[in-house]
Every structure is written in structure tokens, then in C-alpha cells.
Amino acid sequence: MSTDLNLAPNMDRPDDVYADLLAAHEGLNKAESDALNARLILILMNHIGRREVLAQALAAARAPVGD
Amino acid sequence: MNKIFEVPLYPYTRSADQDAAKPAHHRVVIVGAGPVGLAAAIDLAQQGIEALVLDENDKVSFGSRAICFAKRTLEIADRLGCGAPLVDKGVQWNIGKVFFDDRKVYDFNLLPEDGHKRPAFINLQQYYFEDYLVKRAREIEAGGAPLELRGGNKVTDVTDHGDHVELHVDTPDGPYAITADYIIACDGAASPIRSMMGLDFVGRVFEDNFLIADVIMEADFPTERWFWFDPPFNKGQSALLHKQPDGVWRIDLQLGWDIDKAEEKKPENVIPRLKAMLGDDVEFSLEWVSIYTFQCRRMERFRHNRVIFAGDSAHQVSPFGARGANSGLQDTDNLIWKLKLVLEGRAPDALLDSYDAERIHGADENILNSSRSTDFITPKSEISRVFRDAVLDLSEHHAFARPLVNSGRLSMPCTYDGSPLNSADALASGPARTRPGSPCPDVALGNAFLLDSLGGCFTLLTVNADAPDSLTEGGIAVTRLALSTLDDTTGALAARYLGDAPSAVYLIRPDQHVAARFATFDEAAIRAAIRRATGLEMQA
Fold this sequence. Notes:
By secondary structure, chain A is mainly α.
């Protein structure tokens, strides 16, 4: 299993997935949306599980231009 | 009622040293009769090294203070001869509950591992811990061990002359001077000796205050650890409820930074807070109230030639995780056997530098863990609070989030990875938990226990392996403890000391940490490991 973060397109039906993300936030105020995002990040981090992959994801999120 | 912490246990009496024509000389002077200083004195004296303890007071500590004593501390106390009364008096618990806002989010059971003589930890007021150590000190003193405890003796000046140290001591009868080969400064977080020597103590101050109260009540709260994040009775803050012996409950309430300490400590302000927490109908009385703020910091070095710092004088952590007194006991456990060998000329002075290397490693681990707990309990930014609350919300429904909840990671003994006293691991398929540098995990051996069998000397532990019954290298005598997995039906000995290896030979230090391990007995390798473990490879 690769220890590298996958930054190539990997989502099935990206427009639908993106719409799902926005729909999850519908009707929420800023604090509720922030809380949802935090829960979502933690759930996904646990799903990924591997510290080295998460470290690459954090680095990519912090500097989105890449290397 | 005459409380134990109100009774002078070592009242001032005039010593012959005060009338001596020239300063009397002592081998080791320990400054401070708290848990760390007392443990150091007992450890030295019962091995025949003269120990003089000076303390400006004459009583055990006031209030519960340190209340959680971890297994490693109890194992050390066993070696000192006073583990049993501590465990008999202490409260044991395995169930913890975590509350968030107005609801319980989950509970846990620590499910302690089998085959250990001592529990994962006990709750016990610090004054009882000190009282049992004082009793043990008196017991070995009566048996002829060279130990003396002088209350009402305040050290006012310390001068290191290179080959000895000079101390000036103030007493109710006026000042006197003594000299010593070594001083162990166990004089607490505000260490006067550290200040006298102008030494640094840098680190991070946490901007928070905690109200701690010892409450006596006849309540039917179960013997569990309850921790609240953001409870209705202390909004935006945290709270902890813990049971101690004698129907005393310890309550910690976070107050935040911007408070009036004197005002908050008044019973008329404390009692309504406790009523809101415990319920209006619970009868209780206050035994002790204190407010503290804390810092995470350590000295750059703990050893300054002949003055050696141990416990809170050397390092300070937040209270979360019970790493104060517990780490202090690990300091003396690490130091005393080294000091003994150096004083007896059986090891080079450089061995004492390994105390610095190993216990700074331990202090850094404790500071890291306790800082992380503090950051979880008291989020330092809006986003860290958002994540903290998300973890707590998820923990109610999903097991994955529970390991992220951090209300204190309970003190575990440090593994001295990278220590200059370790030999390279020569048991590649052995368990990671017993690699060189590790504290030996206990194993039940019929009606006895492995750690009791190790005692406090260098030991050659053989598991399914042949070796001579004893061996001497330089001035170090090593005794073999021969075990076989055939005698252990539980499988714990194999799981903890063999892993996938068919046999193993461990060289174990007097503080019960692994110095080296091999698959079979190799005399040259064992001798080299003994030399390394006693600092002979450390000389420049």
C-alpha cells in the first residue's frame, strides 16, 4: 500500500460529491459549519489513519501551490 | 481531630554538628523532606550510604496535593520497603467517566494487564505518602541505617568547592555549617538552592488557575474518576472529581486566568461552586482549598557537579497525568544507585552525567505529554476549541474519537532510548517493551513477582538460557535470576521477555531498567554491557 498522499483526481462523480459537501452545511450558521467541518476532518483523518499520509495532506493544505 | 499534617513528625532538635569546632562532613545531604527527598534518603541509607535530610519545616505536606501514585512509583516504594502500606491505604479505581456540557459522553475501564503485583495507580493524599516514607525512614534508622532527618533546618547558602560542597544552615538556635560529598536538591518547584546558585528554569507558563479542594463527604459517588469538559456548573471550564482515602474527595475546578485568587479561595465563594457541582442536598465539609497556576519547564541540566537536582526543583509539569511526584521518584530511582557506585569508587564520576541524559529525556517526555493535555483541556485558540469540542461530540457516538480525548495521560515510566548506558539491542525478535532502556515489566512467578526478585542490584535475568550464577566485572557483582517459560502457565513471561525469541539473557540495572539483552549468554558481551551500564564508556 502506498504511503503517499493521492493528489490525482480520485473522486467518483466530483460534481455530486462537492454538492453533497455544500448540502451538508445548508441551514447551518458559521459556528455550526465550523463544528461540522471539524468533525468531518476528524472522521476522514481516522479513516485514512496513517500519520505519514496525513502529514502530507496537512502540508498540501497549508501550501496549496505544491512543491 | 488531630490531622496528620498538623503533627510535627521531625521536630527541630539541636545536633552535635551545631557545636562542632569545624564543619562536620556528611556523605550525601538531601535538602527537602518531600516524597522525592525522603525516597532518596531511604534508598541511600538502606544501601549503607550516609544520608542527612534537611528540611526547613517539620511536618508532612498540607492538603492532598499529589494524589495519583502510579505503578512504577509503587514498585520503587516496594524496593524501598514501604509499598504495602501505600497500596493498603490507597484507593484503586479502573472506571473513568467523561462528561461534556450536560451529558456523559462515554466511560472507560482501564482493564489493567494481569501479572503485575501493583495496580496501575492509587489515589492517596501526599501527606500519607510522606508519612509512610517517614515511618520507613525511622524504621531503617532504628535498624542502624545511616539516616538522619533534621527539621527546622533551613539551608541558606551552598558553595561547591569542586571536591566537596559547603552548606550554611539556619536553625531556631542560629546558623551552623556542614560539608558534604554531594547534595541532592529536592527542595521543590521554587527551589531556594536553584536560586542561590543562579541557575535557569525556563519553560512555558500556562495562563490558567485551578481551584483544588479536599472535601469530606458521605456521598455514594462510586470510586471512579469523573472529568467534565465545559460543565453547566463551571461553564467554559473543566472539573475533576476523584476519590481519596478517609471519605475525602478531591475536586479540581478550572477558573480561568483573570480572577482574584484571594477572593476565590474564601469559603463563601468556594462552597456555592461545590454545591452547584455536587448538588444542594449533599452534606460536605472543606478540609483544604488551594488555588494554583502551573508551568511546564525544566532546568537545562540537573547535575551541577556536586549539586544534583531531583523532582520539582529540576522540572515542573502541569498536574494532568500525575507526572510530578511520580517523575520525581523516577529521578531518585535513577540517581541513587549511580551515586552509590561513584561514592564507593566502583564507577567513574561520568556515570552521574547519565542521570542528566536519562532524566532530562524523561522530563521532556513528561512536559510534552502534560502540555498536550493542557492544550486539550484549555484550548488556546478558537480553532483548537472547535476541534476539541468536535472530538468530544464524536466521542459520544464513535469509539475512534475516544483515544483523542485528553484529560491527562497517566504517568508511565520512561524508556531511556538512546541512553549512553544502553548496549545495542541484540535480541532482534524480542518484545519492544523490554528493549534496552525499558523499565522491566512485572510478571507473576507463582506466588512471587519478578520485580521483587530483581531487588536493587545488577541482575542477569535468563529465560530458557544457561549462564553462570554470578559474575564480577570490575567492582560490579551481578547475580543471575534463572527463569523458564515452562514454569509460567500464563504466558506473560514469554510475551514480555521473549517475543518470538526462544531464549533471552537480560542485564538489568539496579533501578530495574534493561541495560542490554541477548539471545544467549555471551560472557564478553555481558562484561562489555556491564562496563557500559556503569559509565565506563562515557569517559572522555
